[in-house]
Amino acid sequence: MKKVIFIISSILLLFSISCRKANEVKEWFQEPPVTPVTQTIKTVIPVGYAAEVAILTLKGFSVPDTKVSNSKNATIITIDAHNNYPYRFKGDNYGEMIVAALQTGENTALISVFFTDTDIVNGSFKLLNVIAFPVVFTEEKITAVYVAMDINLGSNTNIGIDLTEDEITSKLLKLENERTENYEVAIAQNAWIIDIYHQGTYENLVDDRFKIFGGQQALAVENYETESSVGALQMAMIDTDFSVNCLKNPTHGHVFLQDVEVSSTANDNDIVFGHVLYEFHPNCDGEILVNAATGNFIFAIGEELDLGLI
Question: Average model confidence (pLDDT) for the chain?
């Protein structure tokens, strides 16, 4: 009898261990992140729209729902996004965008965009302003080149996207020398080329077609006494088409994303590592296709994930 009980107990123990390991393996595989793609679209589209309004105003075209004034050498355009603004995304509030445009040539300008009553929420960041990026007008399209570096040092609010490179370096060195038990650092770099095909209908912005190229990389570090984490994300967006005809998702293009995250607590460690190749499709269903994937995301190949734009 003792021998039978021993055998049964051994079988139950092995079954318990194998189930636990199977669950751990199952938990290791997960869906790849979609939020960075969604955040990029929610940022790039209003910036491109504001750039188009500014350059068309400088070219003498009349744009609805705008007010124009002059301040020194700059033209100030106030865009009322309450009414006819066509690109409304979930979770964002829309009021006014203030655009300062400095004409640098017959078909070129430097543009700064300030979102006053408009609240574009991108995860832990809010899009507050975009300073001095170039815009070029041609008969075929309008091109805006948006480049930014955002640095968020937790509750330390005296650092932002308006700092010079020397000031940024100084702040980061200070952080390194004054590191405490509780800290949070997040650095994001973005570079996007936005082509707006105006179809030759300069006073009708609803029929525009956006094409987006570019990339971003982000680094986040957290340390809160009993747990810490570090993550690095890189993303590139290629030949991405977006228009008012489908606000749920871009209808063409690719996104390549690499995600690396390491977190630890007193009782556990967690690692995320993987690459994803997303593809946009012409179906206006709000989803993006996982074309290829590695690491934690490999079982997501062939899945269509919700972008959550609207």
Answer: 80
